[in-house]
Amino acid sequence: MMSDQPDTVTVVACPPAGAAGATANQFIDAALACLTSKRAKGNRIIRASCIRDIDIQLGELLPRASRTRVRLQIVGHSISGVLSLGASWIPDDEVATTAFRFPFYVLDTNPAALGLLAKYVGKITEVMLVGCNVGAASSFGYAINGRTLTYTLAELLRCRVRGADDVVAPDEFDARGWYAPGQHHRAPKGWRWVDGRPPMWDDLGIDPVPTIPPNTPATFRVRSITSALLPVPLTSQLDAEPTIQITCKHGTSDIPQSALPELTLDTDQGEVQLLCGGRYLKIGERHYVIDRSPQLINSLAELLWNAHAPAPARTSLAG
User: What is the pTM (predicted TM-score) of this model?
Assistant: First the structure.
Protein backbone atom coordinates (compact mmCIF):
# COMPACT_ATOMS: atom_id res chain seq x y z
CA MET A 1 0.00 0.00 0.00
CA MET A 2 2.88 2.38 0.78
CA SER A 3 5.44 1.61 -1.91
CA ASP A 4 8.26 4.18 -2.09
CA GLN A 5 7.83 4.42 -5.86
CA PRO A 6 4.23 3.54 -6.71
CA ASP A 7 3.21 2.69 -10.26
CA THR A 8 -0.47 3.23 -9.40
CA VAL A 9 -2.13 5.95 -7.34
CA THR A 10 -5.67 5.25 -6.17
CA VAL A 11 -7.62 8.23 -4.84
CA VAL A 12 -10.60 7.40 -2.63
CA ALA A 13 -13.15 10.10 -1.78
CA CYS A 14 -13.39 11.31 1.82
CA PRO A 15 -15.37 13.96 3.77
CA PRO A 16 -14.20 17.59 3.65
CA ALA A 17 -12.39 18.85 6.74
CA GLY A 18 -14.92 19.83 9.38
CA ALA A 19 -17.81 17.99 7.71
CA ALA A 20 -20.82 17.97 10.02
CA GLY A 21 -22.96 14.91 10.66
CA ALA A 22 -22.26 11.26 9.96
CA THR A 23 -19.27 10.54 7.74
CA ALA A 24 -19.74 6.79 7.32
CA ASN A 25 -20.48 5.85 3.72
CA GLN A 26 -21.29 2.26 2.81
CA PHE A 27 -19.81 2.19 -0.69
CA ILE A 28 -16.73 4.31 0.03
CA ASP A 29 -15.93 2.44 3.24
CA ALA A 30 -16.34 -0.97 1.58
CA ALA A 31 -14.27 0.02 -1.49
CA LEU A 32 -11.47 1.34 0.73
CA ALA A 33 -11.51 -1.87 2.80
CA CYS A 34 -11.33 -3.97 -0.38
CA LEU A 35 -8.44 -1.94 -1.82
CA THR A 36 -6.51 -2.02 1.44
CA SER A 37 -6.96 -5.78 1.78
CA LYS A 38 -5.25 -6.32 -1.60
CA ARG A 39 -1.94 -5.07 -0.15
CA ALA A 40 -0.95 -4.49 -3.76
CA LYS A 41 2.71 -3.57 -4.09
CA GLY A 42 3.07 -0.34 -6.00
CA ASN A 43 -0.51 0.89 -5.46
CA ARG A 44 -0.46 4.00 -3.28
CA ILE A 45 -3.91 4.63 -1.75
CA ILE A 46 -4.65 8.23 -0.79
CA ARG A 47 -7.78 10.05 0.40
CA ALA A 48 -9.07 13.28 -1.13
CA SER A 49 -12.14 15.44 -0.60
CA CYS A 50 -11.43 17.81 -3.50
CA ILE A 51 -9.33 18.34 -6.62
CA ARG A 52 -6.97 20.55 -4.64
CA ASP A 53 -6.24 17.60 -2.33
CA ILE A 54 -5.39 15.43 -5.35
CA ASP A 55 -3.12 18.15 -6.71
CA ILE A 56 -1.20 18.50 -3.44
CA GLN A 57 -0.67 14.78 -2.98
CA LEU A 58 0.28 14.13 -6.60
CA GLY A 59 2.75 16.99 -6.29
CA GLU A 60 4.43 15.18 -3.41
CA LEU A 61 4.50 11.84 -5.28
CA LEU A 62 5.42 13.28 -8.69
CA PRO A 63 7.73 16.26 -8.15
CA ARG A 64 8.67 18.27 -11.21
CA ALA A 65 12.15 16.75 -11.51
CA SER A 66 10.93 13.18 -11.00
CA ARG A 67 10.72 10.73 -13.91
CA THR A 68 8.13 8.59 -12.11
CA ARG A 69 4.99 7.84 -14.12
CA VAL A 70 1.84 6.36 -12.62
CA ARG A 71 -1.63 5.16 -13.41
CA LEU A 72 -4.27 7.28 -11.64
CA GLN A 73 -7.54 5.81 -10.35
CA ILE A 74 -10.22 7.91 -8.62
CA VAL A 75 -13.01 6.25 -6.63
CA GLY A 76 -16.19 8.01 -5.52
CA HIS A 77 -19.91 8.35 -6.01
CA SER A 78 -20.99 9.72 -9.38
CA ILE A 79 -23.46 10.69 -12.00
CA SER A 80 -22.68 10.65 -15.71
CA GLY A 81 -19.87 13.15 -16.31
CA VAL A 82 -19.39 14.12 -12.64
CA LEU A 83 -17.36 12.19 -10.04
CA SER A 84 -18.11 13.21 -6.46
CA LEU A 85 -15.32 13.50 -3.92
CA GLY A 86 -16.17 15.47 -0.77
CA ALA A 87 -19.46 16.54 -2.33
CA SER A 88 -20.95 13.24 -1.16
CA TRP A 89 -20.91 14.70 2.37
CA ILE A 90 -22.21 18.18 1.46
CA PRO A 91 -25.93 18.77 2.20
CA ASP A 92 -28.07 18.44 -0.93
CA ASP A 93 -29.26 22.05 -0.80
CA GLU A 94 -25.64 23.29 -0.84
CA VAL A 95 -24.22 21.07 -3.61
CA ALA A 96 -25.02 23.37 -6.55
CA THR A 97 -23.44 26.42 -4.88
CA THR A 98 -20.49 24.78 -3.10
CA ALA A 99 -19.33 21.55 -4.74
CA PHE A 100 -18.35 23.09 -8.11
CA ARG A 101 -16.22 25.91 -6.66
CA PHE A 102 -12.65 25.97 -5.30
CA PRO A 103 -11.30 23.69 -3.88
CA PHE A 104 -13.68 21.71 -6.18
CA TYR A 105 -15.41 18.85 -4.34
CA VAL A 106 -16.30 17.15 -7.64
CA LEU A 107 -14.32 16.18 -10.73
CA ASP A 108 -15.99 17.44 -13.90
CA THR A 109 -14.94 19.52 -16.92
CA ASN A 110 -14.59 22.82 -15.04
CA PRO A 111 -11.46 24.42 -16.57
CA ALA A 112 -10.48 26.01 -13.24
CA ALA A 113 -10.50 22.62 -11.52
CA LEU A 114 -8.72 20.83 -14.36
CA GLY A 115 -6.04 23.51 -14.36
CA LEU A 116 -4.85 22.05 -11.06
CA LEU A 117 -4.12 18.74 -12.82
CA ALA A 118 -2.63 20.06 -16.07
CA LYS A 119 0.91 20.08 -14.65
CA TYR A 120 0.90 16.26 -14.54
CA VAL A 121 0.96 15.79 -18.31
CA GLY A 122 3.56 13.13 -19.07
CA LYS A 123 3.52 11.82 -15.50
CA ILE A 124 0.18 9.99 -15.71
CA THR A 125 -0.03 7.07 -18.13
CA GLU A 126 -3.69 6.14 -17.62
CA VAL A 127 -6.74 7.37 -15.71
CA MET A 128 -9.65 5.26 -14.44
CA LEU A 129 -12.77 6.90 -12.96
CA VAL A 130 -14.64 4.51 -10.66
CA GLY A 131 -18.22 5.45 -9.80
CA CYS A 132 -21.60 4.32 -11.08
CA ASN A 133 -21.94 5.28 -14.76
CA VAL A 134 -19.45 8.16 -14.51
CA GLY A 135 -18.27 7.33 -18.04
CA ALA A 136 -21.74 6.77 -19.53
CA ALA A 137 -23.15 8.65 -22.50
CA SER A 138 -26.53 9.30 -20.88
CA SER A 139 -27.54 12.52 -19.08
CA PHE A 140 -30.64 14.57 -18.24
CA GLY A 141 -30.07 17.27 -20.80
CA TYR A 142 -26.92 18.44 -19.02
CA ALA A 143 -24.29 19.42 -21.57
CA ILE A 144 -21.63 17.27 -19.92
CA ASN A 145 -21.83 13.47 -19.82
CA GLY A 146 -19.31 10.70 -19.22
CA ARG A 147 -17.97 10.68 -22.75
CA THR A 148 -17.32 14.42 -22.54
CA LEU A 149 -15.52 14.10 -19.21
CA THR A 150 -13.25 11.25 -20.29
CA TYR A 151 -12.47 12.97 -23.62
CA THR A 152 -11.57 16.19 -21.82
CA LEU A 153 -9.23 14.39 -19.44
CA ALA A 154 -7.63 12.47 -22.32
CA GLU A 155 -6.93 15.77 -24.11
CA LEU A 156 -5.67 17.40 -20.92
CA LEU A 157 -3.39 14.64 -19.64
CA ARG A 158 -2.53 13.08 -23.03
CA CYS A 159 -3.15 9.53 -21.93
CA ARG A 160 -5.82 6.83 -21.94
CA VAL A 161 -8.85 7.79 -19.82
CA ARG A 162 -11.83 5.56 -19.05
CA GLY A 163 -14.80 5.65 -16.69
CA ALA A 164 -17.23 3.06 -15.39
CA ASP A 165 -20.21 2.52 -17.71
CA ASP A 166 -22.31 0.50 -15.27
CA VAL A 167 -23.11 0.22 -11.59
CA VAL A 168 -20.01 -0.34 -9.48
CA ALA A 169 -19.66 -2.85 -6.66
CA PRO A 170 -17.10 -2.01 -3.95
CA ASP A 171 -15.19 -5.26 -4.50
CA GLU A 172 -14.69 -4.92 -8.27
CA PHE A 173 -10.91 -4.52 -8.16
CA ASP A 174 -8.27 -6.95 -9.39
CA ALA A 175 -5.28 -8.25 -7.40
CA ARG A 176 -3.38 -5.02 -8.06
CA GLY A 177 -6.30 -2.88 -6.92
CA TRP A 178 -7.32 -1.69 -10.41
CA TYR A 179 -11.01 -1.43 -11.35
CA ALA A 180 -12.14 -4.68 -13.01
CA PRO A 181 -15.94 -4.97 -13.33
CA GLY A 182 -17.52 -8.40 -13.00
CA GLN A 183 -18.66 -10.44 -15.98
CA HIS A 184 -22.25 -9.24 -15.58
CA HIS A 185 -21.24 -5.54 -15.81
CA ARG A 186 -20.28 -3.47 -18.85
CA ALA A 187 -16.62 -2.63 -19.36
CA PRO A 188 -15.39 0.93 -18.66
CA LYS A 189 -15.52 3.31 -21.63
CA GLY A 190 -13.36 6.22 -22.69
CA TRP A 191 -10.65 7.54 -24.97
CA ARG A 192 -6.96 6.95 -25.66
CA TRP A 193 -4.43 9.58 -26.59
CA VAL A 194 -2.72 9.38 -29.98
CA ASP A 195 0.14 11.77 -30.71
CA GLY A 196 -0.69 14.26 -33.42
CA ARG A 197 -4.37 13.28 -33.56
CA PRO A 198 -7.51 13.77 -31.48
CA PRO A 199 -8.21 11.13 -28.81
CA MET A 200 -9.69 7.92 -30.21
CA TRP A 201 -12.71 6.11 -28.77
CA ASP A 202 -11.45 3.14 -26.76
CA ASP A 203 -14.17 0.49 -26.77
CA LEU A 204 -13.09 -3.15 -26.93
CA GLY A 205 -16.63 -4.37 -27.54
CA ILE A 206 -16.54 -6.99 -24.78
CA ASP A 207 -19.69 -6.05 -22.89
CA PRO A 208 -21.70 -9.01 -21.63
CA VAL A 209 -25.03 -9.92 -23.19
CA PRO A 210 -27.64 -8.81 -20.66
CA THR A 211 -29.91 -11.43 -19.16
CA ILE A 212 -33.64 -10.82 -18.75
CA PRO A 213 -34.68 -10.63 -15.07
CA PRO A 214 -38.15 -11.66 -13.92
CA ASN A 215 -40.85 -9.57 -15.51
CA THR A 216 -42.12 -7.26 -12.76
CA PRO A 217 -43.12 -4.02 -14.52
CA ALA A 218 -44.19 -0.90 -12.67
CA THR A 219 -45.48 2.52 -13.72
CA PHE A 220 -45.06 5.86 -11.93
CA ARG A 221 -46.64 9.24 -12.69
CA VAL A 222 -44.24 12.12 -11.97
CA ARG A 223 -45.95 15.11 -10.39
CA SER A 224 -42.87 17.23 -9.66
CA ILE A 225 -39.08 17.37 -9.39
CA THR A 226 -38.26 18.09 -5.75
CA SER A 227 -34.43 18.12 -5.89
CA ALA A 228 -31.55 17.68 -8.34
CA LEU A 229 -27.82 17.04 -7.96
CA LEU A 230 -27.00 18.47 -11.36
CA PRO A 231 -25.33 21.91 -11.12
CA VAL A 232 -28.64 23.77 -11.42
CA PRO A 233 -29.97 25.90 -8.53
CA LEU A 234 -33.31 24.34 -7.58
CA THR A 235 -34.87 26.59 -4.96
CA SER A 236 -38.33 25.04 -5.07
CA GLN A 237 -40.03 22.02 -6.56
CA LEU A 238 -40.84 22.02 -10.27
CA ASP A 239 -44.38 20.85 -11.00
CA ALA A 240 -44.99 18.66 -14.05
CA GLU A 241 -48.14 19.69 -15.89
CA PRO A 242 -49.25 17.35 -17.31
CA THR A 243 -47.70 14.56 -15.29
CA ILE A 244 -44.86 12.52 -16.83
CA GLN A 245 -45.07 8.72 -16.97
CA ILE A 246 -42.13 6.48 -16.08
CA THR A 247 -42.46 2.82 -17.05
CA CYS A 248 -40.12 0.31 -15.43
CA LYS A 249 -39.44 -2.97 -17.23
CA HIS A 250 -38.58 -5.02 -14.17
CA GLY A 251 -37.12 -4.96 -10.69
CA THR A 252 -33.44 -5.60 -10.07
CA SER A 253 -31.26 -6.83 -7.24
CA ASP A 254 -28.15 -5.32 -8.86
CA ILE A 255 -28.23 -2.32 -6.53
CA PRO A 256 -26.12 0.64 -7.69
CA GLN A 257 -24.46 1.36 -4.34
CA SER A 258 -22.19 4.16 -5.54
CA ALA A 259 -24.76 5.99 -7.66
CA LEU A 260 -25.96 9.44 -6.64
CA PRO A 261 -29.62 10.35 -7.18
CA GLU A 262 -29.58 12.79 -10.09
CA LEU A 263 -33.25 13.62 -9.56
CA THR A 264 -35.68 13.18 -6.68
CA LEU A 265 -39.29 13.06 -7.85
CA ASP A 266 -42.72 13.20 -6.27
CA THR A 267 -44.93 10.56 -7.92
CA ASP A 268 -48.34 9.02 -7.47
CA GLN A 269 -46.62 6.25 -5.48
CA GLY A 270 -44.51 8.52 -3.28
CA GLU A 271 -40.97 9.85 -3.49
CA VAL A 272 -38.59 8.15 -5.95
CA GLN A 273 -35.05 8.78 -7.10
CA LEU A 274 -33.54 8.38 -10.56
CA LEU A 275 -30.01 6.97 -10.72
CA CYS A 276 -27.31 6.37 -13.34
CA GLY A 277 -28.49 8.73 -16.05
CA GLY A 278 -32.08 7.56 -15.75
CA ARG A 279 -31.34 3.82 -15.97
CA TYR A 280 -32.64 2.99 -12.50
CA LEU A 281 -35.50 4.11 -10.27
CA LYS A 282 -35.29 3.72 -6.50
CA ILE A 283 -38.33 3.74 -4.24
CA GLY A 284 -37.65 2.88 -0.64
CA GLU A 285 -35.29 -0.09 -0.73
CA ARG A 286 -36.56 -1.34 -4.12
CA HIS A 287 -34.81 -0.71 -7.43
CA TYR A 288 -36.30 -0.89 -10.92
CA VAL A 289 -34.78 -0.79 -14.42
CA ILE A 290 -36.42 2.04 -16.33
CA ASP A 291 -37.76 1.58 -19.85
CA ARG A 292 -35.83 4.57 -21.11
CA SER A 293 -37.16 6.57 -24.05
CA PRO A 294 -36.25 9.90 -25.65
CA GLN A 295 -39.66 11.26 -24.69
CA LEU A 296 -39.09 10.54 -21.00
CA ILE A 297 -35.58 12.01 -20.86
CA ASN A 298 -36.59 15.04 -22.94
CA SER A 299 -39.63 15.76 -20.78
CA LEU A 300 -37.64 15.66 -17.55
CA ALA A 301 -34.75 17.65 -19.03
CA GLU A 302 -37.12 20.30 -20.41
CA LEU A 303 -38.86 20.67 -17.05
CA LEU A 304 -35.55 20.94 -15.17
CA TRP A 305 -33.51 23.18 -17.46
CA ASN A 306 -36.20 25.43 -18.94
CA ALA A 307 -37.24 26.47 -15.45
CA HIS A 308 -33.88 28.27 -15.14
CA ALA A 309 -33.48 29.51 -18.72
CA PRO A 310 -34.19 33.15 -19.66
CA ALA A 311 -37.73 33.40 -20.99
CA PRO A 312 -36.80 34.04 -24.68
CA ALA A 313 -34.51 31.00 -24.69
CA ARG A 314 -37.07 28.49 -23.47
CA THR A 315 -37.55 25.99 -26.25
CA SER A 316 -38.70 22.41 -26.24
CA LEU A 317 -35.93 19.81 -26.17
CA ALA A 318 -38.31 17.33 -27.72
CA GLY A 319 -39.01 19.42 -30.78
Answer: 0.83
